[in-house]
Amino acid sequence: MPSEQTEARDRSLTERLRSSLRGEVIDRSSPGYDEARAVWNGLIDRRPVAIARCAGTADVVEAVAAAREHRPVVSIRGGGHQVAGSAVCDDGLVIDLSRMKGVHVDPSARTARAQAGVTWGELDRETQLHGLVTPGGEISATGIAGLTLGGGFGFVMRTFGLSCDSVRSLEVVTADGTVRTASRDEEPDMFWAARGGGRGLGVVTSFEFGLHVLGPEVAGVLALHPYERAEEVLRAWRDATHAAPETVTPEILLWSVPADPAIPQELHRSKCVIVGAVYGGPPGDGATAALAPQRELGPPLLDLSGTLPYVTLQSANTWRFPDGERYFMKSHFMEELTDEAIRALVDWDSRRPTPESLIVIRTLGGAVARVGPDDSAFAHRSARYNLSIDAGWRDPALDEASIAWARSAWDAMKPFSSGGTYVNFAGLGEDASGLRGSVFGSHGERLERTRAAYDPEGLFASAAHRP
Description:
Pfam families: FAD_binding_4
Number of helices: 16
Family: Belongs to the oxygen-dependent FAD-linked oxidoreductase family.
Protein name: FAD-binding oxidoreductase
Distance between the termini: 29 Å
Structural class: alpha+beta
Oligomer: single chain
Domain FAD-binding PCMH-type: 44-214
CATH class of the largest domain: Alpha Beta
Number of strands: 19
Largest sheet: 8 strands, antiparallel
Keywords: FAD, Flavoprotein, Oxidoreductase
């Protein structure tokens, strides 16, 4: 039971927030408390003292002032899902930006300004009115904030770079309550750190993105191959990626056939190899030729390749990652995908605990690698691949087995890695201490100095050091 002193402190924090915020303040006595503290990953069950659901930047300034006065643990929630669940904290304050949904597109300047509660689906809906995109995540329900601050993998990253590479500027409320603009010309150290450095600089309230011409229709490959040919397909896919132009972003998944009405029912939920690729330019003969090597990997179970709206592409897998199910993800960067690594991958995939679990290999290079290695805090520009081991399940009774599978598979693949880990796929809180060097590499010291310069008293320190 909390002490009287703790209860008084918590009441004082909540009263301070309610007296100054235009948005809603939710505490443990509020009717909507359990709904407000729930996040996408059902594995996360945390009970904050208060949730400050900010209506705008002025509310964020007040929430930061309240945190500075009362010194609770602070977490920051954007608009989408984040695997480690660090958007919420136990016994602290959640600065919740999920209702901050403003988007403004300037098609002449090819820029978009979006608040931190926006998801990629919401941003794409606005930018695609003008046939423009900024490279975003592969699930439309993902929030722009967390993904971008951690780097940002997506379907067209080899053509247009990571999500953070298209950031022109950010609005950030720092620990002293100052509203700052970070760009190449203003607060350049903050701008450097925010592009791939994750959390801990302050509360990012909006992003200005540069936009690229793409859509509304895009060309892509989606081919499902028999699982018994997994090693063969992986080797052929690896070889094809070595020659892929920058206009093509390939990936491969060891997963299960989706229960889609367009697919024969007898195949549903059976193991398969899924080859995907997107062309970062207009559909047509050029796209067909560039994508052909990704389609020529042997006879598929199904070939669903073709053209489709960009917004449909971005939302196609969202239903396979529903809110409230349980997730655990860890990753490695890799320079090469050797035959030995492929055999190990297939071996570990054969032990997958649930049909929802999967192993994904994404191809980097192209525009990702063209950015200078020290131009942003993202530390893995030279890697050819990212390997993500993603456990997914519904039954809480499978928690231990599912997490153990993912961790064991990650350990088994470590000898084949370059020693790097992607911060957005870095496990849970207990994985944090062993990952800081592998996440930020040689940028770690500069990142810590930058955080300390803007937050000398460590108001956001707990947020900074979570996956």
